[in-house]
Design goal:
By secondary structure, this protein is of the alpha/beta class. It is built from 11 helices and 7 strands.
Amino acid sequence: MFLDNHFWNTKCAELNTGVVFAFVFCLFLLDIVWYYINELKMIKKNSLTLSIVIPVYNEEHHLKACLDSIAAQIEQPDEVIVIDNNSVDKTVEIAKGYGFVTLLKEPKQGVVFARNRGFDAVTSDIIGRIDADSILPPDWTYYVKHFYAENSHNDEALTGGCYFYNMRLARFQGWCQAQIAFRFNRFILGHYILFGSNMAIPKTMWSDIRHSLCHDNGVHEDLDLAIHAYKAGYKITYRSGLKVGVKMRRVRSQRDQLWSNLMWWPKTLRRHDRWTWIIGWIGAVFLYAISIGGPLIEHISRFFGYSPINE
């Protein structure tokens, strides 16, 4: 009896050892399979191409920092297109100083025409759109490429927020701007908008909606693009963590342009027969009223001895 028990105990121990070994071996095989799955994904991701389009008009004070941030990307874009929209300062000279820049000319004045010229010239799978005062984080290109590497994102436009590098409480004020630009607009539109300083779309999307857009200077061209993209069945994805630095213009200086710029918001909604343009108008008035806060915070900061932040 003792021998029988010893025999079966030995067999059970051997069986348990075999089960443990088989389990570990299966984990090993799964790890190998997972590794090669990720390798295949990386191959697919690396096969995607990205062009960054930057419309410019008299941007000699901003363009260099923008292009420097592109040069510092951990994964370089495949193409960078700068579209000069009749600049009379050193903008073109600065753009020519970067070997990776393709410089184009758009004689018809207006950011919408400069944007169209750049988007039409893109040769990549993805069109990235930023402004001349945008400063990209080092992983912006990597983030955008890997977002579109997922097949589920083929029919999506991607956009993100910002922080204002020429303002006090830069990230807090950027967060406040995002609540209006993205959350509030989603409420009155039913979808997110696209932010021209920080966005990307598939080239196929541009081909689909290009001729249906409003081609004039009387609208916010990025808002108009978002409305048409959504109408065409595309999803707009907002990622709050995808932030770029931008300059808050028409607040501390050029305030005479602020009101007309804000009024493009309800005008664009009204152009698309959205009754919510009234809510947009109220929102624009609210933004104009609180815009005094930026210069006020700067004056208070200087009063208490903080170093000035240049406009």
